[in-house]
Amino acid sequence: VFAMLRANIRLLRSQRAIQALVTDVDDKEYEFHVANNRGASSSILKFKHHADIWPEVRFETSVRIRSVTLDTLFRREGLQAEDYQALIMDTQGSELLVLEGCIPILRNFRFIKTEVSDFEAYEGCCQLADIERFMSRHGYQERIRERFASRDEGGSCFDVVYERIGSP
User: Fold this and answer.
1) Distance between CA 110 and CA 164 in Å, rounded?
2) Residue 159 backbone dihedrals phi, psi, to 5 degrees
3) Is-contact 67 28, C-beta < 8 A?
4) How far apart are CA 137 and CA 162, in angstroms?
5) Tens-place pLDDT, residues 132-152
């Protein structure tokens, strides 16, 4: 997947691909489960109710990876958070970990878009209510919520956009 990303952006001079596992702590080892749907459902978390919507998806293999916070990653790569208006996340249930690890630079982002469910798609994953509490505590307000999948048993997956309160 990373090689495909690099190939896709090779002609875009203002973009660069960085391969990293972003969480809430630096240098913690995780087992990263790789899914059979071209990696789209890969996660540090195990499936729980994911199969209720996507029964054909399964983990094929796993690799051990060390984590980094977004704050540390930005410093290590020489990036300035104020150069970016938006943070877009789709980390298969670990979005709250990413947010907790970027608190020092969080207010630099005017918009934060995240994929999140209101049920436990992955074991121990963050859910919509968790993200809502975090975003509210840190001065962000929901602007857009789009449902893109639902379980027959109840619960849905959403793309949600938050905007920093007081943004111009």
Assistant:
1) 5
2) -105, 125
3) yes
4) 12
5) 999 999 999 999 999 999 999
What is the four-CA torsion angle of 122, 2, 26, 137, rounded to 10 degrees?
Answer: -60
Distance CA 147, CA 159 (A): 7
Q: Which amino acid is at 104?
A: P
Quote the CA–CA distance of 91 and 73 in Å, as a whole number: 16
pTM tops 0.85: yes
37-42 own/partner pairs: CB under 8 Å, 24+ apart: 38/1, 39/1, 41/92, 42/92
Choose among 77, 70, 74: nearest CA to 100. Answer: 70
Asked whether 112 and 161 are in contact (CB, 8 A), the reply is yes
Write out pLDDT tens, residues 43-80: 999 999 999 999 999 999 999 999 999 999 999 999 99
Sheet with 21-22: strands ordered across: 21-22, 59-68, 29-35
Give 30-99 as a DSSP string.
EEEEEETTTTTT-BSSPBSSGGGT-TT--EEEEEEEEEE-HHHHHHHHT--GGG-SEEEE--TT-HHHHH
